[in-house]
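Quick one: structure for this chain?
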Amino acid sequence: MKTAMILAAGRGERLRPLTDLCPKALCTIHNTPLIEYHVSRLAQAGFERIIINHAYLGGKIRHYLGDGQRFGVHILYSPEPPGALETGGGILNALPLLGDAPFLTVNADIYTNYSFKSLHLPAASLAHLVLVNTPASHHTSDFGLSNTHHVTNDHKLYTFSGIACYHPRFFDDCVPGRYSVTPLLRAMADNRQISGEIHTDVWFDIGSPERLEYVYEQVFNMLDAP
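Got it. Here's what it folds into:
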């Protein structure tokens, strides 16, 4: 895989007031915007093209990242209308830029050390999800995982990390609009068309100013560790 998409169109309501003047993707940890961590790590993993969708204050993301040349990648943008298109509608809207081959997606509002280079789409799958053990701060889990590495809607023990790989055919029956990708994932999980893996190392969901501060402290401790 050489193409990735960073999902950065969310309004970031839970991060207000930080996001009143700053898009969620540009919130910083140790003076580095969340989205820059992803761009840098995708470049290091060998990705060449990165598509970024945006809506609220999207011009600030464009201004900060530019065409990606300083990161060694080619960045293209997929603008969305006010209110954005959510994950499903946003990916579908960006398909003309993503191309015909499998591509990676990652939510802009997570912090992780997951190795993007290791992600691949098994031949029999239309999507491959990276799952994490459900954090104590989450009240429910998203999916289960069978011993054959199929994502299931039963025995839900894991949270979807926001990192996935899709084949464009996953979206064949979708129509333009505003909708989440989750119902599509659930339907295809029932048909055993989605595989998955579990990431057990660093992963944080940046969902509030308190969570951002917590991650700031955790990353500081990791950087300061011997």
